[in-house]
Amino acid sequence: MAVNRKTNVVRILESKEIWHEVYEYEVEDGLIDAVSVARKMGFDPERVFKTLVTTGKTTGTNVFIIPGNCELNLKKAAEAAGDKNIEMLKSKELFPLTGYIHGGCSPIGMKKDFPTYLEEMASEYDYIIISAGKIGMQVKLDTAELVKLTDAKLADLV
């Protein structure tokens, strides 16, 4: 169901006049992983993407956007970022760095712009669904607009 609540992500999309739809889902059951969220909203898990933040030995912070039913391949991620070694950012470091918490991290509206990589299979879809910047909300938007907005590079990541 579409809702009118606004997050920083929604405000950014509106200010840039980018088409989007906002969805809300129940969080009381504690199931906030992308596959559970897709199921709750009635979407294919391949269309609900999760945002993962990593740290590289030489490249520093990188953002990866992958389908919710997939796992990030750290070797492929390092190759895409041009680094020898990448590891997931620790949960406690996520909020101070990005402004988002685990389960509500969006590639749009982070505190800083970080190099961003989108799983190449996303280019097969006219739209994907990502976090709207808080647990319980997702945003559906045009894949090409997300790429343009985040300056994401398409890469084989899973």
Write the layout of secondary structure elements.
Elements: H1 8-15, E1 20-24, H2 34-41, E2 49-56, E3 60-67, H3 74-81, E4 86-88, H4 91-98, E5 116-119, E6 127-131, E7 137-142, H5 143-150, E8 153-155
Parallel strand pairs: 3-5, 5-8
Antiparallel strand pairs: 1-7, 2-3, 2-4, 6-7
Unreliable runs = none
Major β-sheet annotation: 5 strands, mixed
Strand order across the largest sheet = 4-2-3-5-8
Alpha-carbon Rg, integer: 14 Å
Characterise this structure.
25% of the residues lie in helices and 27% in strands. The chain is built from five helices and eight strands; from the N terminus they run αβαββαβαβββαβ. It has a five-stranded mixed sheet. Strands 1-7-6 form a three-stranded antiparallel sheet. It is globular and about 40 Å long.
